[in-house]
């Protein structure tokens, strides 16, 4: 059981030590990583995904339950407690969606076909272009691929840590992902430029110049702001779908969506 993940500080881009000793992340926590382009957000979660031991250019170290992970966990993908999904994540195997999920489920000792149906259904909550069980995973669109992999990580994958790099630009319904992902008991880390996602997480890690600049805990006003922003975001999402479906803005639509 993974109940806590610790990041031990490394060095910023100029070689200066980061100004924290350790950051402890507990099972069930949601975290966002924010900061300007090039500030080291992807590098930070990549350290977690690699279970770095001072052997990446940031020199950070990752502990699992307070201990350095054994080499088995670091090198054997089947034992790895971490799933990372980025904008570029693709499935390379020439399999159908159903075969791909079945193989993954079997590897985890799950033989029920119900979980395959549930995973496809969950993925289809995250994307507007429906995924079919007979589709080949190699021809899925970027948004479909990420939707499928997130659903797979939640329902089939046992990974207690899920890292998501900028999923807001990935053609998926982030609101649905945010909702489902909140109470899985897993550690979920979002690298994001999106204020809706950043304000929804319990903690925010702020990056600057390759280093962690601050760790902030969500306050009460931010919970309220997150809700208001979500409402606004849903309206924008609804308009986006209308425009995609070649509709034009009418007075009725304005009243309906902008009210
Ligand atoms: N602590 C560090 N020491 C040295 N190089 C670093 C450090 N952190 C990040 N870098 C390097 O800086 C570059 C930008 O980092 P990274 O890709 O993590 O930025 P980012 O915040 O994810 O940017 P974006 O928002 O554009 O995706 C990369 O080449 C990365 O390897
Ligand atoms: Mg990045």
Subunit organisation of the chains? single chain
Q: End-to-end span in angstroms? A: 47 Å
Bound molecule types: adenosine-5'-triphosphate, magnesium ion
Q: Write the element-wise H/E pattern from the N-terminal end onward.
A: EEEHEHEHHHEHEHEEHH
* Neighbour order of strands in the largest sheet: 5-6-7-3-8-9
Query: Class of the largest domain in CATH?
Result: Alpha Beta
Number of helical runs?
A: 9
Radius of gyration: 19 Å
CATH topology of the largest domain: Rossmann fold
Determine the mean pLDDT. 90
Largest sheet: 6 strands, mixed
Instruction: Output the CATH homologous superfamily of the largest domain.
Output: P-loop containing nucleotide triphosphate hydrolases
Q: What general form does the structure show?
A: globular
Strand content: 15-25%
Into which percent range does the helicity of residues fall? Answer: 25-40%
CATH 2nd-level architecture of the largest domain: 3-Layer(aba) Sandwich
What does this entry look like structurally?
With 259 residues, this protein is of the alpha/beta class. The protein folds into 3 domains: 141 residues, P-loop containing nucleotide triphosphate hydrolases (Rossmann fold, 3-Layer(aba) Sandwich); 70 residues, Helicase, Ruva Protein, domain 3; 41 residues. It is built from 9 helices and 9 strands. The strands form 2 sheets. It has a 6-stranded mixed sheet, with helices on both faces. A 3-stranded antiparallel sheet has the order 2-1-4, with no helix packed on it. Helix 3 crosses helix 4 and helix 4 crosses helix 5. It is globular, with a radius of gyration of 19 Å. The mean pLDDT is 90.
């Amino acid at each position: 059981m993974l109940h806590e993940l610790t990041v031990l500080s490394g060095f910023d881009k100029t070689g200066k030590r980061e100004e924290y000793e350790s950051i402890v992340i507990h099972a069930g926590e949601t975290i966002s990583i924010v900061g300007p382009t090039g500030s080291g957000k992807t590098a930070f979660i990549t350290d977690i995904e690699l279970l770095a031991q001072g052997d990446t250019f940031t020199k950070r170290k990752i502990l699992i339950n307070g201990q350095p992970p054994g080499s088995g966990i670091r090198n054997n993908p089947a034992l790895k407690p971490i799933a990372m999904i980025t904008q570029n994540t693709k499935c390379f195997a020439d399999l159908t969606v159903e075969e791909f999920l079945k193989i993954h489920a079997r590897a985890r000792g799950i033989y029920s076909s119900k979980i395959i149906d549930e995973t496809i259904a969950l993925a289809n909550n995250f994307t507007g272009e429906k995924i079919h069980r007979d589709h080949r995973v190699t021809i899925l669109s970027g948004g479909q691929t990420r939707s499928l992999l997130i659903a797979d990580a939640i329902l089939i994958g046992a990974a207690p840590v899920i890292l998501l790099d900028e999923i807001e630009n990935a053609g998926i319904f982030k609101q649905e992902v945010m909702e489902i992902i909140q109470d899985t008991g897993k550690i979920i880390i979002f690298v994001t430029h999106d204020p809706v996602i950043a304000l929804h997480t319990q903690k925010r890690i702020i990056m600057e110049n390759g280093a962690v600049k601050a760790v902030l805990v969500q306050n009460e006003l931010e919970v309220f702001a997150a809700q208001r922003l979500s409402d606004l975001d849903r309206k924008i999402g609804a308009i986006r779908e209308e425009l995609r479906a070649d509709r034009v803005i009418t007075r009725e639509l304005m009243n309906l969506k902008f009210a």
